[in-house]
Design a protein that fits this description.
heterotrimer, A alpha/beta, B alpha/beta, C alpha/beta, A: alpha/beta, FAD/NAD(P)-binding domain, five-stranded parallel beta sheet, globular, C: alpha/beta, 28 strands, elongated
């Protein structure tokens, strides 16, 4: 198959290339004129889907992802609601498609540095007739040669920092080495040196020798590697930068970081995941919990935390978590505290019904605090959740040995930076602002720049995929018109 | 008695699982539509929630459990297919087993056990109501055990209660006029058990199902028709008569006992006979009549139109509807064992409200199709002093008037 | 067989998904002993890059001409492994998979027996592999154009996106105007914009777009063909009384004559919308009996007119009650699902009523408040701040009380029943699949989910695609949703449609049926039984020939042929029998 390239310049090249394509080789052109290209910023499911749609239609796409692998949040999940599909199982085929797609140039461990209209003006002020963009991307140095690395993992096994670097992918539950892949199904499956953890990069030396280099049979590790700046010319951009979760320490009354029994929903996902740090066994402080309590709306619907909105996915993922606990711990007592149950999507209400029939007790009332249970002055290793059961009309205390907090979905910490880069407007809730609340959910305030997924607001996977395809549709419109040199008043 | 003070702690989990109460979302529709919730502390939603969240429930601390009339509005309306009334029946069962039941209910159960009827009157006298039927028609009533096409299941109140007996007598007359081949089980008939089951006495109920079921199947009738909607409800829905006798896959030709038996309430059969032209009314009954849908006929089994069809077929009769009709008919508080238990609130009886509603339509007659409704509403008319304005009559009494001059009315 | 099979067998651990139950190393060792197997390996994740690289390296270095991957269901990764093989020059149909996950490790717990079963499964697929034949990959040209069925917001948005990309679109609408259900609304949530102002420009864009042909008063009568090459017959629908058209209508009437008009397109988008729940089906709520009880749609009209009285005349409206979940989340009427939009539209209507009647009491009776969208929770907060009272507890029945009505329910937070008097009651009726969805289902062979709406290909990752290639879903015909989610979905459907349109070709099925003319008796049974019209009797030779482009490889003809003259490629008798023999232990 042929790909069509786009004019690009590289500046400040030093050392080897860091191309992410599985096979190298020159880019061939189609009938002498380059096909218009698209840029997708963010390699989660939204970015992946958008890139695939555009690439399947035959246009070249650059997919820029900040982390060493694509996959985003969905790769962290165990099972997805309401079908209980294994998240990786449905995600990895798409990731692999992206990695192999002849029309997608995957740039992982890379960041967008600047975006300007082709005439140099900022995007919103451009008077350029083609109205495309020149985007500068920084390819951060992995210190690993991607063409040589086979993903064998011997370096990580040998690393001096093995088991001592907190893994962000595993939400702090597990540790890794300073040279790592974020998860086993990563695309590309190539190792990366974490510059904040590597002894050599932080302190200037790593013992007498580089254990990683010694272990690597392909001689792929290169500490001389530099960052690379690449300029891309694209006609349209899709922003799919995703979300973050509220720091639960902003709700100190729940005892997060104080009690080991209290964890967040995404930490629970890692715990429950068969490929996670505990191989899917749910244990707290080495024991299987007997009483599990789920608290919803932690930070959401709460002006005090600056999150007055609903995070949309927590009711469903909490029901799913309860189901997973019931599946693995058949005799556990499971309680979910709620204010409302928002099971609104296709198959969602039926899933809620199902979970209730699995003896998960829904108690109405938003808990007020969590505290340590002591008996005769001794620490029992359990906590107590204090709430008012508004249906009974009286306060209750529920003992638990595992408490899972459904923390609010919030804009990424770098959202201001990304907004500034492109000139995007933000809504009062902090996410990116769509051009029209009803009729243009994926359009931004800027021409030819679209968005998709949770960077626009919290949403579940089906709505994210729909939005990603929606953004792709808009992008395809731009690309098609450019290619066919059509003009409408669009 | 000192023991009576003790609580009765029931472990909730087994019953929650057995009754699948977990589907409940606490929407409140059950309590919201419960006719007695407004006048007692009975709150079925709250009881379900207690069962769900507490490990134990002190069943004895809920005397209001005996207030439920088993109208099943809660079951009919629950959006999650939970059957709240089944919880009440289940908890009553616990109380029955523990021997903690109101005296009058105990007496009624004992009566059924001993004499086959809750009033405990002699079984021998069960067919005595036929004495009021003139001889020619009386001979038309077969002994169902000898075989007949339609088996009339009389029921306890219609058989023994002097006020209600007019109804089966009117039925006999109507069936004879229509040329029906019918019979009764005579003194072998026992209480259908509908109220017994709803009072929580499952063991006695199963015994009745077995005895009556055998008799009914042995009679070989294709159809069973009942006087009371309560008998209708249990024979139709709980006896398994519509799935054939012993579950044999095939039946020999002529062995009607293995075939399916259709269960009808008399209003369905009478309406059918009218439609077929086998019953025609010669006399005018110039009355304004309003009809009260019995819970066990209307709400639970969705028979709304046939009773009205009968009334409309009576010449000269003007039918007016109460606002609370059909699915929203106001329960008379006769069901669920309430005929033998006063309940926790004696002052406000729903029957009082009901007869007032009937009188407000301007009707002269409040027509009913259920012996319990007949008794409770008639009593209410008296207590409320409405006897000058309103008369409570069973539909068959009106039919009787329309059929012949020498009816008992 | 010309070539000796050189088979490579790859057993996947799938993390622990397979290896926790099946001894994958044992299975690999066993596989190495099977006839024709040159190499057998096990690996942690065959679908990963290095996993595929293993296969590719072996194909090149060991000259493999058949590949067997024992892992998950082929529905997951068959294209992945086929693609990997293809990249190094091996025909993708020489790759076969053994499902030892969904059909083995995930459904058994006994390790020993599961391992034996996995070995059997692998042996059977290896036996088949020896008989695999390379198949031609075909592409079919695509008619550059799309058909959109339904002229509501979903249909219009989808049509515009396809048209904006430069392709002609036929927009078929059953009624006499565009705008669908949204046109019946007054204002939208949460911004309270006026619907005519919102919809007007959209309708105008559609009607004036050079690439869009709007066919009003039309419906689809027949659909023939397949993805990229649909032939659709559009006829006149029986439509209700005509309404005033928008400015500059560019609608065309369907063709003259009984046959209607034939339209050729490459892709079809279904945007047929929903029906509204009929509250007569909940007689206890008194709809149709009391003029005080109305539906939310009727309320929209009254709000648009600024007059809430309706049939109640001049009587003052002191209390307005809204009842949520009428016909939704209710197994009694057969709709267990949530209709998704009612909580928001009720909050909207309640807010507007407060504005209109500042002295009236406005109460909403609910089970859960599902205000989950962007700006939705804030909107709910504002409604309550304005004085709309939310009471948790749904209404069980409605009775008349003089000129007013009485709502009987239980306030579950107070824990006691209430009798609430109101002058006006609004039922928040839900969405249902359209009554005529059956017809469209049959026409397009579209399956439905248990809730009656059209079924998407995968509930998480393929929300707009269907089991029928080339047909996508947009809007509420797939399930209840609000305008912004409908627009996103409609655009998503457009994207799926644009892919083949822009590419200009689509792949056709390779594993098709083939007739051996020597055995064919010309009986014509295959022609009768084929759902796709692929076989045809050659008029000259009297034997059946199967059009490989129309054939979808369903196998009906192969099974029906009494002469056993038809083979379904990739599922030939020799291949299947080899599998059966291996499973039965026959050499």
């Amino acid at each position: 198959m042929q790909t069509s390239g786009v004019k690009r310049q590289t500046s400040n090249v030093k050392g080897q290339t860091n191309g992410d394509r599985a096979s190298g080789g020159p880019v061939t052109r189609d009938q002498g004129s380059p096909k218009p290209a698209a840029l997708v910023i963010g390699g989660g499911i939204a970015g992946i889907q958008a890139a695939l749609d555009i690439a399947d239609a035959g246009y070249p796409v650059y997919l820029v992802e900040r982390e060493p692998s694509i996959g985003g949040r969905m790769a962290q999940l165990d099972k997805t609601f309401p079908t209980l599909d294994c998240s990786s199982c449905i995600l990895t085929p798409k990731m692999v498609d992206v990695g192999r797609h002849p029309n997608i140039e995957l740039m992982t461990y890379s960041e967008v540095v600047s975006v300007a209209a082709l005439d140099g003006a900022p995007p919103e002020e451009s008077a350029s007739p083609t109205r495309g963009f020149r985007v500068r991307v920084r390819k951060k140095p992995r210190y690993v040669d991607l063409d040589r690395c086979t993903g064998c993992g011997l370096c990580a096994a040998a690393c001096r920092m093995k088991g001592r670097v907190v893994s962000r992918f595993d939400e702090g539950i597990a540790n890794r080495s300073a040279i790592y892949v974020p998860f086993p199904q990563a695309v590309p499956l190539k190792y990366t040196v974490d510059p904040s953890a590597c002894l050599y990069l932080t302190r200037g030396r790593c013992g007498k020798t580089f254990l990683c280099k010694e272990a690597c049979p392909a001689d792929a590790i290169d500490f001389e590697q530099q960052e690379e700046l690449v300029d891309l010319d694209v006609e349209t951009i899709i922003v799919a930068t995703g979300f973050d979760l509220l720091d639960p320490r902003l709700k100190p009354e729940f005892g997060y970081d104080v009690y080991p029994e209290v964890m967040t929903g995404v930490e629970f996902e890692r715990l429950s995941s068969a490929s996670g740090p505990t191989m899917g066994k749910i244990t707290v402080s080495g024991r299987e919990p007997k009483d599990v309590v789920f608290i919803k709306c932690v930070g959401s619907r709460d002006p005090h935390t600056g999150v007055p909105y609903c995070s949309r996915v927590c009711c469903m993922y909490t029901a799913k978590h309860a189901h997973l606990v019931r599946d693995k711990l058949p005799d556990a007592r499971i309680t979910i505290f709620y204010m409302d149950v928002r099971a609104f999507g296709k198959g969602y209400e039926e899933f809620y019904d199902r979970v209730k029939h699995e003896r998960v007790i829904y108690r109405r009332g938003e808990p007020s605090e969590v505290y340590r249970l002591r008996k005769n002055g001794d620490d029992t290793g359990r906590v107590v959740v204090l709430a008012e059961d508004t249906l009974l009309g009286r306060p209750i205390e529920v003992e638990a040995d595992l408490v899972v907090l459904a923390t609010a979905v919030v804009p990424r910490t770098d959202v201001a930076e990304v907004a500034g880069l492109l000139g995007l407007e933000r809504s009062p809730d902090g996410f990116f602002q769509e051009a029209h609340a009803k009729l243009s959910p994926v359009d931004t305030n800027l021409d030819r720049i679209f968005m998709a997924g949770c960077c626009q607001g919290p949403k579940d996977i089906p709505d994210t995929v729909a939005q990603a395809k929606a953004a792709a549709s808009s992008a395809l419109g731009v690309l098609s018109r450019c290619e066919r040199k059509l003009t409408f008043d669009v | 008695m000192p023991h009576y003070e003790r609580g009765m702690a029931l472990k909730t989990e087994p019953m929650v699982e057995q009754l699948e109460l977990m589907g409940c979302i606490q929407c409140g529709k059950c309590t919201g539509g419960c006719p007695v919730a407004r006048k007692t502390v009975l709150n079925i939603r709250s009881l379900i929630y207690d069962m769900l969240v507490e490990p134990e429930l002190d069943v004895n601390a809920h005397p209001e459990l005996w207030d439920c009339t088993c109208c099943f509005t809660c079951v009919e309306r629950c959006p999650k297919d939970v059957r709240p009334a089944d919880l009440i029946i289940g908890l009553r069962g616990q109380l029955v087993e523990g021997g903690r039941i109101p005296e009058t209910i105990g007496a009624a159960l004992m009566g059924v056990f001993r004499q086959g009827n809750p009033t405990g009157l002699a079984r021998e006298d069960r067919a005595a109501w036929l004495d009021g039927v003139d001889e020619k028609q009386r001979t038309a009533v077969k002994a169902a055990q000898d075989g007949c096409e339609v088996l009339l299941f009389v029921g306890c109140s219609p058989a023994y209660d002097l006020r209600v007996q007019v109804v089966p007598r009117a039925l006999v007359r109507a069936f004879t006029v229509a040329g029906l081949d019918f019979g009764t089980l005579g003194t072998e008939e026992s209480c259908c058990g509908n109220e017994v089951r709803r009072m929580g006495e499952m063991g006695l109920f199963e015994m009745l199902v077995e005895e009556n079921g055998e008799l009914i199947r042995g009679a070989g009738a294709r159809r069973v028709v009942t006087t009371s909607p309560h008998c209708f409800n249990t024979l139709k829905n709980e006896y398994g008569l519509d799935v054939g006798g012993t579950g044999a896959a095939t039946s020999d030709i002529g062995h009607a006992s293995a075939s399916k038996i259709e269960v009808l309430h008399y209003t369905q059969l009478i309406a059918e006979l009218i439609e077929q032209g086998r019953l025609a009314f010669s006399n005018e009954v110039r009355k304004t009549v309003t009809y009260h849908d019995p819970c066990f006929l209307g709400k639970q089994n969705h028979v709304f139109d046939e009773p009205r069809a009968i009334l409309k077929a009576i010449p000269g009769l003007k039918l007016v509807e109460m606002d609370r009709s059909r699915e929203r008919s106001l329960c008379c508080e006769g069901g669920g064992g309430r005929m033998w238990a006063e309940g926790t609130n004696l002052e406000e009886r729903l029957a009082f409200q009901r007869v007032q509603e009937a009188a407000d339509t301007g009707a002269e007659v409040l027509a009913v199709a259920c012996p319990f409704c007949l008794l409770t509403l008639e009593d209410a008319v008296k207590v409320q002093g409405l006897d000058e304005r309103l008369r409570v009559m069973d539909i068959m009494e009106l039919v009787d008037l329309a059929l012949n001059d020498d009816g008992e009315v | 067989m010309e070539l000796q099979p050189r088979i490579g067998v790859y057993i996947c651990h799938c993390g622990v998904n397979i290896s926790a139950t099946v001894d994958v190393e044992q299975v690999a060792a066993y596989a190495a002993t099977l006839p024709g197997v040159v190499v057998a390996r096990d690996y942690l994740y065959m679908c990963s890059d290095p996993g595929q690289a293993l296969i590719q390296q072996d194909i090149e270095a060991l000259g493999l001409n058949r590949v067997v991957v024992a892992s998950c269901s082929p529905r997951m990764h068959e294209p992945t492994f086929q693609g990997a093989a293809q990249q190094v020059g091996l025909n993708p149909y020489l790759v076969e998979m053994a499902n030892i996950r969904e059909q083995c490790s995930w459904v058994h717990t006994d390790r020993e027996r599961a391992t034996e079963k996995a070995k059997l499964l692998v042996a059977s697929v290896v036996a088949k592999a020896a008989w695999l034949e390379p198949l031609e990959e075909r592409e079919v040209g695509v008619t550059p154009g799309a058909l959109v069925i339904g002229g509501g917001v979903a249909g219009m948005i989808a049509a515009l996106d396809v048209a904006d990309a430069g392709f002609p679109v036929y927009l078929v609408e059953k009624g006499d105007h565009l705008g669908g259900r949204v046109a019946e609304l007054n204002r939208t949530f949460p911004t309270l914009e006026s619907v005519p102002e919102l919809l007007g420009p959209l309708v105008e864009r559609v009607q004036t777009h050079p690439n869009v042909s709007v066919l009003l008063n039309s419906r689809v009568a027949e659909v023939e063909g397949y993805v990229g090459n649909f032939e659709v017959t559009v006829v006149e629908s029986q439509s209700p009384k005509p309404k005033a058209q928008g400015p500059n209508p560019k609608s065309q009437s369907p063709g003259q004559g009984d046959g209607g008009r034939r339209v050729e397109v490459g892709a079809i988008i279904v945007a047929t919308g929903y029906d509204v729940f009929d509250p007569h089906r909940k007689p206890e709520l008194g709809y149709g009996q009391y003029p005080n009880v109305i539906t939310s749609l009727e309320m929209e009209q009254r709000l648009a007119e600024g007059d809430l009285s309706g049939q109640m005349g001049d009587k003052p409206i002191k209390s307005v009650a809204f009842i949520q979940c009428v016909g939704s989340r209710d197994v009694q009427v057969g709709n267990p699902y949530c209709s998704r939009v009612c909580c928001m539209y009720t909050a909207k209507q309640a807010s507007l009523v407060r504005d209109l009647l500042p002295d009236a009491q406005v109460t909403v009776f609910y089970m859960d408040v599902r205000t989950f969208g962007k700006g939705a929770e804030e909107f709910y907060d504002e409604a309550r701040a304005k004085g709309v009272l939310y009471r948790r507890g749904t209404v069980s029945e409605i009775i008349r009380r003089g000129d007013r009505v009485m709502l009987a329910g239980e306030d579950t937070l107070q824990g006691r029943p209430f009798e609430f008097e109101a002058d006006l009651v609004v039922l928040a009726v839900g969405m249902e699949a359209r009554v005529d969805a059956d017809e469209l289902s049959m026409l397009l062979k579209l399956p439905r989910s248990s809730d009656g709406f059209f079924l998407e290909l995968h509930p998480k990752l393929r929300p707009v695609d269907t089991a029928v290639d080339g047909v996508t879903l947009a809007g509420c015909c797939q399930g209840p949703k609000d305008i912004s989610d409908t627009v996103a979905q409609a655009k998503a459907a457009a994207s799926s449609a644009l892919i083949p349109l822009i590419r200009g070709t689509v792949p056709a099925e390779s594993a098709t049926a083939v007739v051996d003319a020597d055995w064919c008796a010309g009986c014509g049974m295959c022609v009768e039984v084929c759902p796709y019209g692929a076989p045809a009797l050659d008029p000259l030779w009297g034997v059946s020939r199967i059009n490989p482009v129309l054939c979808k490889g369903c196998g009906s003809c192969a099974v029906t042929c009494p002469s056993k003259a038809i083979r379904l490629m990739h599922f030939t008798p020799a291949q299947i029998m080899a599998q059966v023999d291996a499973l039965m232990g026959v050499e």
